[in-house]
Amino acid sequence: MRYLFRTQYRQDIALWRHNGDRFWYGLLTVLVLIAPLVLGEFYIGELGAVYIFAIAGVGLMLLVGYTGLISLGHAAFLGIGAYVNAVLLARGVPFLITLPVAGLFTALCGAAIGRPTLRMSGLYLAIATLAFGSIVGTVFQKWTSVTGGFDGFAVPTPYVFGIAVDSATGIYYVSLAVLAFVMWISANLLHSPTGRAMVAIRDSEVSAQSMGIHLARYKTLVFAISAGMTGLAGALFAHYVRFLAPDAFDVLLSVQFVTIVFVGGLGSLRGAILGAMFVRLLPQFIAIVRDDLPFGIGRLPGLEPSLFGLVLVLVILFQPDGLNGMWLKIKRWFQAFPFKRQASFRRQKAYAKSERLR
Fold it and tell me: Range with the lowest mean pLDDT among 130-134, 158-162, 327-331?
């Protein structure tokens, strides 16, 4: 088992804890780069969708997992990024400009919704963001001169340095590059004073305010950053689906984003990626086993949302740390083997934030 001894302050802000992290993450980078050479187009397309959902999951993880602010309106931010990117492309703006513009515009929308909801928390904040998502969905439906309404419109093909990004492989590499950028930004943010302020707000707003942390400023900033990252995911999502319609950004999509955060593991960037893999690959698994399920279960309407809700409840009850917590337990088990102790790996009682002082 590896023991880390911190001997300098630089180690507290380093992105890599030790050389083992550099090796394994470097190997993972090589594997994802060569994946299109060995996998079929269908699997590459699904992996590209996993990366897109992981980008949105990382943005929501900063808001929910690290700041403690719940949101049920992130599907609206995804839609805003998708429509801004597609509309600008249709007007001849290059993709390398439309992508960051979509993220920046969505960040401004996030700051606009974050500012008036600063005094809300918990269920009230969730309802407010859900209402915001409904308003944005109505705008997508009624603003037919721009969005096309329910008829929608086809997303133009993007070009990067004169190369058309119209294949599953092209979307895969662009999504991978954006995900790496978002992870790098998030990791550096969490190691900065801003990241520590976010965690302080999550643990106790009263204590954070007593230490001089400006709650309104940091909450608005986190809302903007989270929405901006989701807007980047929306711009890529537009090219993944290739046709935009308002009903693609409904409340079920927001629930899927929340599922990514909770199933992956609150307070973990790795958990956002694991949760995105689960959420995107679960429908494919359902499609494979649907015909083999007994008693006509596979033909029941609403099977997929029901499974998402069931999994979310089971994770909260029996595995509060999510898939990332399971990974850490398995990792520690192998590190301690064969000198493990069974008592060390039993599920410990996890308390909600409101129960810690009882």
Answer: 327-331
Does the N-terminal peptide bond of residue 283 adopt cis geometry, omega within 30 degrees of 0? no
- The answer to whether residue 323 is domain-embedded is yes
**Dihedral angle of Cα 310, 316, 320, 326, to the nearest 10 degrees:** -10
Residue 161 lies in a domain: yes
- Domain count for the chain: 1
185 or 330: whose pLDDT is higher? Answer: 185
Q: Which helix (H) or strand (E) holds 163?
A: strand 163-164
Residue 339 dihedral angles phi and psi, to the nearest 5°: -100, 30
Cα 311 to Cα 189: distance, rounded to the nearest angstrom: 30
CA 280 to the chain's CA centroid: 12
Give the length of the chain.
358
4-18, 73-87, 94-108: least confidently modelled range: 4-18
C-alpha distance across the termini of the chain, in Å: 35
Decide if 2 is inside a domain.
no
Phi and psi, residue 121, nearest 5°: -155, 165
What CATH number does residue 67 fall under? 1.10.3470
User: Do residues 64 and 229 make contact, with C-beta atoms less than 8 angstroms apart?
Assistant: no
Residues contacting residue 288 through CB under 8 Å, at least 6 positions apart: none
User: What is the reported pTM?
Assistant: 0.84
Residue labelled with tokens 């880390």: 4
Whether 79 maps to a domain, the answer reads yes
pLDDT tens profile 208-266: 888 888 888 888 899 899 999 999 999 999 888 888 888 888 888 888 888 888 888 88
Domain range for 286:
10-30+40-348
Compute the distance between CA of residue 220 and CA of residue 117 in angstroms, rounded to an integer: 9
316 CB contacts (<8 Å, ≥6 apart)?
262
140: CB partners within 8 A, 6+ apart: 79, 83, 147, 149, 246, 249
Return the pLDDT at 229. 92
